[in-house]
Amino acid sequence: MILTIIQADLVWENKTKNLERLGRMISSVPRRTGMVILPEMFNTGFTMKAASFGEAPDGLTFEWMKSVSGSLGIAVCGSYIIKRKHQFFNTFVFVSPDGEIHSYDKRHLFSPGTENKIFTRGRDRVVFSYMGFRICPNICYDLRFPVWSRNLNDYDLLVNCANWPESRRDVWSTLLKARAIENQCYVAGANRIGTDGEGISYAGDSTVTGPKGEIIASCEPAAEALLTAEISKPELDRFREKFPVWRDSDEFRLVI
Prior knowledge:
Elements: E1 2-7, H1 15-26, E2 35-37, H2 50-53, H3 60-72, E3 75-84, E4 87-95, E5 101-105, H4 115-118, E6 128-130, E7 133-139, E8 157-162, H5 169-183, E9 186-191, E10 193-195, E11 201-203, E12 207-209, E13 215-218, E14 225-230, H6 233-242
Parallel strand pairs: 1-2, 2-3, 7-8, 8-9
Antiparallel strand pairs: 1-14, 3-4, 4-5, 6-7, 9-12, 10-11, 12-13
């Protein structure tokens, strides 16, 4: 499968401009791309104004994702603010050209930024299949918690959509590589660039990492880019059989 990460400079709290810009960028992805990955809160930036920018699950941004996916024949995924009843969630949404939909609510809310006081944390670990790959989504801060994303021999690709600050860029790069090695999986990390409305800067450093910790593809820092990489399920299977670390992993149960 060919992945394309959109590393973009998000316009602070402006859905119209962000969707227009991202739409133009997606229209330029390589023709064989199977899935496009957008950053965390791709339509607003990492805002805490959930009441102002939260949408119904079938709202504006979801309809935009369906339209883009259907017209280009490419699956589209990323996170944005969704409102359900009286609660707000930072939700990863995946939409495929044939109408397949999957979602994941961010489990680990960034308490230093008060995300935990405004949003409701997710309860369910999610894995879904697409184009022969079992995919586990997580969002930004989730990357710091390896037990949550522990591969139970049930996924092949870990996708992380982020607004990860430039001040902690070394942590971002290190953890992406660590998650790939310990879980013997591909890891796609999609981060933004630019400076948000709170004055926080982002360097991007989006990457696709292989199961040995090798960097398959990476973006230049602080530059808008389309990062395209091909990942192979047969190659992953051969590596796992040749070096079957997963067979010796500890058994555990998540306590939700």
